[in-house]
Amino acid sequence: MSDIINKKELFNNHPLQGREALFIIKIGGNIIDDENKLASFIQSFIAIQGNKILIHGGGKLATKLAKELNVEQQMIDGRRITDSETLKIVTMVYAGYINKNIVAKLQSHNCNAVGLTGADGNIIKAHKRPLKNGIDYGYVGDVDEVNTLFIQNLLQQKIAVVLAPITVDDKGQLLNTNADTIAQETAKAMSKLYNVTLIYSFEKAGVLLDVNNESTVIKSINPEFYSQLKKEKKIFEGMIPKLDNAFEALQSGVNKVIIGKAEELQNLIDGKSGTSIMQ
After folding, report:
1. Are 253 and 188 in contact (CB under 8 A)?
2. Whole-structure pTM value
3. How far apart are CA 175 and CA 177, in angstroms?
4. What range does the domain containing 172 cover?
5. Which of 94, 95, 118, 270 could bond to 124 as cystine, CB 3.0-4.6 Å?
């Protein structure tokens, strides 16, 4: 087996029976920016038995630091343009402070963890995003390969892996990469070796029939139900890319995808909250 699994490869539908479970959890700024929520999440993450990977975003700290350093930030449709100075800032913040702060909190509770970026161990190789609709996003990366065996070696040593959203290309250029994308691509690649559950956390309780009403969480969605919801326009536009990514992950070998609040991590795993995306 090759040490590197290319995302362009076809994924074989191997039976999941007998494989070890692996939880891949992505958290965003709503957790990272709140010390109390982060502390509570860390306790829930530690309680997960077995193999686990935590993938985090950047929160507001990079924007705050850029402002203090007078580095102008450009956003287009909510996406950050990563010029050379911004790349330095996001690398310092994501791979440095945020990543090591999470690792330190895990270690303080006797959860052995290692904080990494895509450059470490060549874990995640990417390429600079080409012009999109005439827009140059700068040093933004799209994932090409995930070094699954390197990650597996860490997991086999009972080490929790904490991944920052910084990748590297084949020329050694660091790239800023969307954390949701890293979570999806890592889950797809690791599903060759594990029975993977991917958990996307964000500020809502799950997929909602009414975006303004948290009590309207849809418990589970399969492809047929998803098509129906889109046809009836019962899913707001911002959720459609998340669900498209979720179903792509399932089609590529991931066992289950769950969307909900990180503050309810154990309930998400137990099926008591959030939305389970199923084939």
Report:
1. yes
2. 0.90
3. 6
4. 18-277
5. 118
